[in-house]
Structures
1.
Amino acid sequence: MIREFQSTLDYRPLTNAEMIEDHRISVCVRKRPLNKKEINKKDVVVVTVPNKEGMIVHEPKLKVDLTKYLENQNFRFDYAFDETVDNEMVYRYTAKPLVECIFERGMATCFAYGQTGSGKTHTMGGDFSGKTQDHSKGIYALAARDVFRLLHSKYRKQELIIGASFFEIYSGKVFDLLNKKLKLRVLEDGKQQVQVVGLKEEVVENTDDVLRLIQHGNNVRTSGQTSANQHSSRSHAVFQLILRKKGTKKIHGKFSLIDLAGNERGADTSSSDRQTRMEGAEINKSLLALKECIRALGRKGAHLPFRASKLTQVLRDSFIGDNSRTCMIAMISPGMSCCEHTLNTLRYADRVKELGPAGPDVKPVDNISPRNAPLSPQNSDLVMIRTINEEEISDEMLNFHEVVNHMQDMEEEVLDDHKAIADKMSKWINEDKKLLKMAEEVDYDVEGYARQLDDLLAKRIDALANLRDKVVNFRLELQEEENLSRNIKKGKRPPNK
């Protein structure tokens, strides 16, 4: 049936001769070829790329009388890449047009999105030969090559230096991939600028420096197991090239290249394992927040719900300003075995840009709060996203995300207080030694000793009691999350994307 339908199509695939269109937001889709595993299982290709912007998914279905039929679902994007296209050509139409804007004080962002195993890491990181990856042929390296080319030619008089940072966002937490996976705090300063505190930035002078950092970071990136891939990327990896004027710390421009976590993991919020639930909840939330932040980029004056997830929070400066540009490359697997995930990916990519500059009618957040208590800025943005995506976030799922947000805030508070107590303990030991030394004297002041010891113990008991109260409340919050996740499992599962 599929071949019969394909024979009726007029094929006009994308070529290198096409004019590159100028988009502030560009959404492209790349179809990979069948892999060896799929070929051995005799998987059927159900995706066709008839022209430079079209993609068709042939979804096999059954009628009530069990008659087979084909439902052909059409999608349209800025560019559609078939399985014959190499990374160089994908780069030419996606990230390459963004490079120059960072020299003009702009922020450029390139996202790789899709199911685990759909080709994200291949596209961003380079071609694989067995388990060995040629990093020189990925979008990271190709973008770095053009950044250094422009730095030493057209913009050589601007006296710019280039720094690089590489971090991952895993389960709502940020880890520095260039500094022994150090856990970092994300804070908002008085000017509402988001700072990743302590993030290591290394000066890079050529493409080889960039490749060395990428290889190092990828080696320590969090991976796990899903049904799609035994080494699924469970984290969002964010690599940034930062331009600064020599002698200053002020950012001149920034290019962020993001390899997003496998989108199939967003459905893992119903898992029996808490860590898997936390991963799934964060991925689900961050992908929805990302979609709305990109859409807001195309609507001047629209509220930017960046606080809804850690990913959009750290990328806030990429979504503001008239000179911000974004491209999303959605990767899809071609086989029938991945048809559901492929459709989810295409629908998500389609919604990123479907509304154009007009944007959706967003209800005021105050009118849609599900609780009487005031909402935190994070949950306020989450509720706004829910109003725009009502079919994708149920009331139970919204409540679950709010509880998870609160739980993560409490976790940070407990950890901070625990560290503070641990730091105080060395001071307490010194105080004890000083007091005991006083008591060794023949005619020491017994009443003074008892009074000082009582004061010391009272302060310590207060500090430990406060920490204990927070730990008790934190454990109650963990139990509430557990109970909510069970209700989600019993109820209807929300759509993936």
2.
Amino acid sequence: NDNCDLYKWNGDAKVIKCDNGVNTRTITCAAGYWAQSATTNGTQYIGNIASVTITGNGAFLGCKPICGNGKVDADNKEECDAGTQCKDCKCNVGYEPSSPLTISCALSDNCVKYGWSSDKNFLKCDNGVNKRTITCKAGYYASSADATIEKSQKAGAIASITLEGSAAFAGCKQNDNCELYKWNGDANVIKCENGVNTRTITCAAGYWAQSATANGTNYIGNVATAVVTGSDKFLGCKPICGNGKADADYKEECDGGVECKNCKCNIGYQSTSPLTTSCSLTDNCAKYGWSSDNHFLKCDNGLNRRTITCKAGYYASSADGTIEKSQKAGAIASITLEGSAVFAGCKQNDNCELYKWSDDAKVIKCENGVNQRVITCAAGYWAQSATTNGTQYIGNLASVTIVGNAKFLGCKPICGNGKVDADNKEECDAGSFCKDCKCNVGYQPASPLTVSCSLTDNCA
């Protein structure tokens, strides 16, 4: 085959000849160029070989300019970067020869090459292509010789800086934490001193210094100075209270969980002990009690109050006439008392007054019990309620005991001796409780001694 004619040489003008072989073609480049193919790229470059033999239809990749004597081509295309095969070529910016006789370039270690001024407050140096990023320890910013950059680094307390090439590192400088994070504009601060990643704030006499982390310790000891870390907030100079007194504005009174020293507790709180440094919620139930009332059910504690609940059948009384009237009328079992207010006791509900007897004129009396009322009907009547209807009727019982607010259903006339009342109201039909009464038409007694009637079997 004429491989030169078939597969050619990629139209490269620097090819000076192509020689055919059996299933090959040998391509030769002009002086100053090496011949590149996919399979012999490396070998050709290292030896600056101008000819390459390509098998079959393998691609010819062109005639490439040779660089040597420490020079690079005008277009810089032959500079070397990491992993590229080179020979006597200048490495790209940020790369350097691996050895004096290298044929490849490696990334320059800028951290080692240009350093970080041996600064003892240096934390780390990260290498990049023709740059290095230097990071300082906490409490320091990375300085710059450039005034504009330096201003920005200092104002932002920026711990890292990226330097191009051989640019000198100006060192790690301590942050001015007093200037950066200040003291919350508190007029009672008398000085602020910088430390490494800290600022020490001192308050005027009569104040303790409050910060998020040193609140308790400072308050207990009335410590006027607080050491605040990094950008943590200073919470202010707080007035010292002592001798069992609180400040005029009561801001320093103590509530649950707040550490205090010799301070009056807020309303609803009390000291845990005579030498306490904290206040806890007052147990108003234990402190002010519930009058040792044996009808008492429970007492629930709250902030400066207690809620007392009475047993069923009792209402929670009050010494206040208006409240007492409302409690009694509503049979309200619970009452909430503020502070040390006295509990007037649990008083039995007047169930006869509350729930009455359906205005039945045949009721001759109503007697109160605990959570119940006993209603008595006049002679010749039995007392009816939803739960004791049958029992009352069968026994002709004139009295019934009704629990809570259950309804009284009235005084019902007694019928006997096979008679029914003139108004026929007491005649019996299926399912009604009866005693010695005539059954309604169409009904008959279930048995000779029946107390109820059933439908007559007219077919039988």
3.
Amino acid sequence: QQELLSSQEEQFQETQHMLSDISRAAAEPRRLAATTLPPKVHVIDNTTERAFTDIENLQQALDHTWFILCGALVMFMQAGFAMVESGCCRAKNVQNILLKNLTDVCVGTLGWWMSGWAFAYGGPMVDGYLENGFIGTDQFFGAGFMSTPKAGMIEPTGAIKSWFFQWAFCGAAATIVSGGVAERVNFPGYCIFSFVMTAFIYPVCVAWTWGYGFLAKDISDVGYMDFAGSGVVHMTGGVGALVGAIIAGPRLGRFDNPDAFNPHSLPLIVLGTFILWFGWYGFNCGSTLGMTTAAKGMMAAQVAMNTTIGGATGGLTVFTLRLALLKKYDIGGFCNGILAGLVSITAPCGNVEVGPAFVIALIGGFLYQGASALLRKVKVDDPIDAFAVHGVCGAWGTLAAALFDWGDGFDLYHGWSGFACAQDASGVCLKGAWGGGMAANVVEVLAIASWVAAWSTIIFLPLRLANFLRASDSVQQEGFDAAKHSPSKAYAMSEPGAGSCVISA
């Protein structure tokens, strides 16, 4: 026992020394900056490279763990999308909805690997920004992620962890579209769009923004601000869903007999909403892109708090609005309100205080309700309100990130600087920077909406004209599951009436 206690004491002392080293490094940032040699796993030439220090080893381990954990949470959101979308639709099409969700992940993975990453983050970079400002041109098929400096030695890069984390975001953007065109789009035609979205359309939007393209450099001194993707991810998916819904046309009989299209499973919708809310903490908190400093840890906590307030506020806002309008409780509206609040706070979650987060989500709830009602009035059939939730609230969240930035009034601006103001080269806060930040975010909304709408039209319209997109009336009447799937039902149930089902005795 004495030997065990002695060993534990030694381990404790070693841990204390390591923590002490980390604290000194945080207090003296120049200490690690004294050498400009890049750290490597394998050191071949001491004059051009060096080994990782103990502190750097720990930081790399923490960062990789954070990326993998948060990326897995974002990936799990696919289960939430599947539950919400299948629950919102009729029982006779559930398998087909789930098929498209599964395909989005698998086809999207290959699209991201083949060209998506390269267009989004491939570079080349000059002075920290994308050289051409528009699209990446390197690292197709993961090229350059690892090298072989010497026989028997493989040198990895940090791009691998980023590829995984950003892949999960790419899949989310594509899946949003599937809900907007549900119950009337053929599977092969949808697969074509899903691949183009993940391999080209979405990655270019990323290149302009998170890939340090023209929106990060050329619009203003402070650039755009979209912390976790209200515009980059959600608006991209929402606009694609709107274009798809318009070109595909409404489901057969949708506006002749609306009650026949009621959601078939509110339990699935509620379950999916909770899964999405849970995964959103990976989506937003993970966008700190690391967990190696006190400031990043505190930022992740601030983001988590804002995200929580956003979801709760959006849900209660729409629930209250629907209660006032219908004089009855609307659980489906409650769920979409939660998602509207979460989408609204996704861009500004890293540069607003919790009070503004409440206001942002409150306004997002009103905007969602208005957009949802407007789409029904003009007879655009969006089964899960993908555009109202992700498109409208995504645009609003992007604008709100600049409008409610926690800088001092409308003079100072924080944006990507986090807890500090945006500064000039001499370390002085930029005066009047808010206007530049607002302008950049307005351009982001316009640029992404135009890009996605144009390319979605280019893909969807020829497919519709070639009769390759929209399912026949007979298939829609029978249901995709019976017409296209084996087994022919998602449930062992009988359906006594349209829009309802009971478990067989």
